[in-house]
Structure prediction request, 175 residues.
Amino acid sequence: MVAVISGDFSEEAAAAYESLQRQMGLIAEAQRQRVKLTASASVRDGRVTATVNADGLLIETVFADDIDELSYAEIAAAVTEATQQAAAEVAQKSAELVAPLREERARRPKLSEMIPGLADVEAMMPVAPPVPTVVPDPEDAEVAADPVLEFENVEEVDRAAGRGRSNPPVSGSTW
Prediction:
């Protein structure tokens, strides 16, 4: 398939480039702000407090002086609960931080809109399944098959046909 480029392409391309430059500035600033994000959550009447970083990783756990009133199982469950609450909070903060980026991207024309016939790559992106917040039961675990990528307009290459050339393959014994 041959894409047809309209006469307005250069104007559209210039506007897209300007929008891309704005987007890169917003991304850089969001990245600088994001690395500073933390969130904390306390559970069991403040006996357990967990603090996570911007990636939702536990970076600090604090137990109150009366932690000995809880059993080990209650403490373990409390650490998990507090960590998950803090991770959810930092995820919300991250989402708020990138909201202007998403708004800017939504205003920017897609390349597929500027070049008729070009596939919309964004629409082809697979959606990641949600990550569980509990330990999965091994008996219930279902291994999802990776989607098969199919490409159009490709050329089949016979790798065996390349043998016998004057230039040996990279894995050849002459290396």
